[in-house]
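Human: I would love a firmer grasp of how sequence relates to backbone shape in proteins. Take your time, and here it is.
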Amino acid sequence: MAGYRPSESKREQFRRYLEKSGVLDTLTGVLVALYEEPEKPDNALDYIKVHLGSGSPDPADAEALRTELADLQQKFNLVMEENKELKSRLLQYEPSPEEGAAP
């Protein structure tokens, strides 16, 4: 029985899997950041959720942000057009800097 090796426990296999995939390092980093927070948050679980993040937003959130961006871009363009129009109207009533300096 010199060649007999006890089988690795499922727990040890799972631990190595988590370590190899970087999960343990990520969790440790978030927990260390929470530990080092000068003022601990009221809800530690929410803190962990926010700081773990999935890397990609929820599709519904992403779509809402795209819609908001499109609306804001349209409003921006309208304001820029209005600004240009108001500047041109203002020039009709104010002399140019070269004309205003005449004695």
